[in-house]
Write a sequence for this structure.
């Protein structure tokens, strides 16, 4: 569904790349996650894939179209939910969706049903300008489904939503997967990535560090972590360390030799810990 | 079809926006000013250039009478410079008239044409008996009947001669074969230019900057609808608004005089042209604040021809390089009875062509920068 080879993008059109030499493929029907801290280049990559940003360097094919000559027609099969909500403030939620529906040549969903799906059913006739940030975000998300997309781009679909609503959104994405929809999502939320994605790419400073399924990553790193709580300067401290990496093994020895250990147990690594291990960076 | 949906949606949005009401408000202000603050005709104090085509003794008698009426009872000899040529005149000033006596009909035509003022030849034909006095006026084209009659009365003290003089009247316009516009009506073309084109240019840019700020253009860019349809729907809204606001001004002031079909055509083509400029501005700048200098320059360029229009005799050649000059000219021809429709059609064609170029240019530029 998506093929990217050696993609570079620089906003200043020089060698300060927001995306650097990125290559990956997204299979039909899979949920592919771009996981990385803010500023990593996730939205930029998505921008190029959706034609919002002009392709500068690299080869990109989306839904069979070369990014050098995207056609308006292809957007009939594409949905895009934006990180920053962008709806008409002066129109009601329903008007926003109804108008957007008219911009496609394919069968579209019923606006009211969509609003109900994202929990805005009773707010259909309120002006979007009066919505809270989270409500606008949900409206933007709902809008991306209006044309029954086969390829779905979601930029931070759950960011800023409270956990219950985030869970609803997650269920909707999961449901669409069952309908055969291919999803490319960006997030810095590892739970979303962990629970939803067939495969994730770790991206930091515009570079993809690794691509694999959360399951494989956990098998590879799983049960090979120890959580050590110890007393340091009359205070309790805590560290998660790998039992395979040489650096971490030395650290474990050092802790055992130097400090009084309180608790110590092995556990399965979370995706976040794996991310930190692999990239040397946190997810925030 | 998508264009139609976009257009109706834009119209709906416009009706909920602040700018739309600004435009209506401005139109009403203009109407009120035109109707209540601008007199039908500005003043009765007129400047006229006279040539006395009569034997010396008659002329002397005439001059003596003028001298009598002159506020300081002196005739001032002076020279008026027209295109590097000095024309000798004798100047009299009465309560309501400034009179320049010139020495030949040639000089008279030069002065009247250049100063855009009334010129008259008073001729006493001695070859018949009794001698016949006749008047020949050189008018600019915008004088009213009232003003013309006033001249008739001024130069003909008794009614019998007045009637004879009216029969004898030879009125010739210097510019085109206009019928007359009152001073109030005379202000209309430049006001319409301000109301339609200037506002249109400014407001379409404002609409797009607003959309840019809200990120709406990005949402539009990932649909199966094209950028040109988006821009065209805005242009249509601007055109409809300018038709409405023009109607608000023109119908109460001019009634049935203008050729409304021609007016509609001209509003659409000039609106398209002005929108094109606005679209281009919104393509090259990120925000209204950043575009301000460009908008300012364009506004001045739009205003200058209007100013030149009100200052008779000030019409530097470069004014004719500004499109607004032709917009004003076009409106003048439309509101004047018997105006030159062919000229308006030609102008419309020109604005349509120029507007198309701007539109295509703006669309190409927007495609690249709308979403960056
Ligand atoms: N419109 C822009 N102009 C210039 N730089 C930008 C723009 N958008 C993003 N960037 C920069 O590009 C980098 C990647 O940003 P982005 O793709 O938005 O990251 P993410 O979505 O992973 O948070 C960041 O350094 C960001 O500051
Ligand atoms: Mg982002």
């Amino acid at each position: 569904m998506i093929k990217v080879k050696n993609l570079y993008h620089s906003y200043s059109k020089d060698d300060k790349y927001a995306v650097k030499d990125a290559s990956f493929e997204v299979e039909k029907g899979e949920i592919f996650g771009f996981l990385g801290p803010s500023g990593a280049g996730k939205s930029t990559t998505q921008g190029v894939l959706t034609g919002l940003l002009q392709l500068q360097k690299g080869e990109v094919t989306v839904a069979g179209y070369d990014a050098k000559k995207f056609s308006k027609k292809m957007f009939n099969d594409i949905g895009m939910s934006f990180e920053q909500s962008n709806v008409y403030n002066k129109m009601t939620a329903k008007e926003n969706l109804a108008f957007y529906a008219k911009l496609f040549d394919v069968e579209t969903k019923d606006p009211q049903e969509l609003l109900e799906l994202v929990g805005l059913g009773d707010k259909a006739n309120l002006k979007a300008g009066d919505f809270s940030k989270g409500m606008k975000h949900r409206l933007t998300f709902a809008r991306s489904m209006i044309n029954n997309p086969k390829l779905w781009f979601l930029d931070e679909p759950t960011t800023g939503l409270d956990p219950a609503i985030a869970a609803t959104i997650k269920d909707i994405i999961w449901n669409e997967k069952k309908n055969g929809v291919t999803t490319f999502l960006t997030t810095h939320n590892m739970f979303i990535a962990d629970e939803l994605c067939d495969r994730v790419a770790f991206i930091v400073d515009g570079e993809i560090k690794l691509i694999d399924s959360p399951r494989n990553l956990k098998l590879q790193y799983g049960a090979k972590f120890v959580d050590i709580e110890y007393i340091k300067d009359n205070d309790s401290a805590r560290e998660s360390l790998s039992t395979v990496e040489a650096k971490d093994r030395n650290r474990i020895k050092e802790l055992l030799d130097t400090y009084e250990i309180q608790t110590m147990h092995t556990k399965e690594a979370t995706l976040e810990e794996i991310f930190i291990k692999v990239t040397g960076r946190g997810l925030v | 079809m998508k264009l139609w949906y976009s257009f109706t949606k834009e119209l709906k949005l416009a009706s909920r926006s602040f700018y739309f009401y600004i435009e209506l408000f401005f139109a009403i202000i203009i109407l009120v000013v035109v109707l209540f603050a601008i007199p039908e005709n500005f003043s009765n104090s007129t400047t006229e250039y006279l040539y006395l085509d009569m034997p010396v003794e008659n002329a002397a008698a005439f001059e003596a009478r003028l001298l009598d009426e002159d506020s300081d009872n002196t005739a001032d000899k002076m020279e008026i410079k027209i295109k590097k040529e000095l024309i000798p005149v004798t100047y009299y000033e009465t309560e309501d008239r400034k009179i320049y006596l010139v020495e030949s009909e040639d000089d008279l035509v030069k002065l009247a044409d250049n100063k855009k003022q009334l010129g008259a030849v008073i001729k006493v034909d001695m070859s018949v008996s009794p001698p016949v006095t006749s008047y020949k006026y050189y008018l600019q084209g915008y004088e009213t009947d009232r003003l013309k009659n006033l001249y008739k009365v001024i130069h003909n003290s008794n009614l019998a001669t007045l009637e004879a003089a009216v029969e004898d009247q030879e009125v010739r316009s210097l510019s085109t074969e206009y019928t007359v516009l009152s001073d109030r009506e005379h202000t209309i073309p430049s006001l319409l230019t301000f109301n339609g084109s200037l506002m249109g240019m400014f407001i379409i840019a404002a609409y797009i900057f607003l959309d840019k700020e809200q990120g709406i253009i990005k949402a539009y860019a990932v649909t199966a609808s094209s950028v040109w349809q988006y821009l065209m729907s805005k242009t249509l809204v601007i055109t409809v608004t300018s038709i409405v606001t023009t109607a608000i001004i023109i119908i109460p002031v001019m009634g049935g005089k203008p050729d409304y079909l021609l007016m509609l055509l001209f509003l659409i083509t000039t609106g398209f042209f002005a929108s094109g400029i606005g679209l281009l501005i919104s393509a090259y700048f990120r925000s209204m604040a950043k575009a301000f200098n460009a908008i300012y320059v364009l506004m001045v360029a739009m205003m200058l021809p209007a100013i030149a229009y009100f200052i008779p005799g000030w019409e530097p050649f470069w004014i004719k390089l500004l499109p607004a000059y032709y917009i004003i000219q076009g409106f003048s021809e439309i509101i004047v009875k018997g105006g030159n429709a062919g000229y308006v059609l030609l102008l419309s064609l020109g604005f349509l062509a120029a507007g198309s170029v701007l539109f295509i240019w703006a669309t190409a530029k927007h495609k690249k920068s709308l979403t960056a």
